[in-house]
Design a protein that fits this description.
With about 70 residues, the chain is of the alpha+beta class. Helices cover about 30% and strands about 30% of the residues. The protein contains 2 helices and 4 strands, in the order E-H-E-E-H-E.
């Protein structure tokens, strides 16, 4: 499994609740979580079949900034 890490503009639990149905509906995502304490509001996605661009696109369409963190 790969862990994809993203910087997002999802900054509170209300915003997490907005994207939760999107992320949970993707069968290729085994697990996901936000670190809202981090200044970059990190999203971690565990998957072995998912393109980082797909996650970015999903959050962008929901009205949030999201881009893969280079590490």
């Amino acid at each position: 499994m790969d862990v994809l890490v993203f910087v997002t503009s999802v900054c509170d639990s209300k915003a997490v609740n907005k994207v939760q149905p999107l992320l949970s509906s993707v069968p290729a995502i085994a697990q996901w979580n936000f670190d809202l304490e981090d200044c970059d509001h990190i999203l971690r996605v565990v998957s072995n079949q998912l393109s980082p661009r797909k996650v970015e696109s999903m959050l962008n369409e929901a009205g949030f900034d999201c881009y893969e963190l280079d590490y």
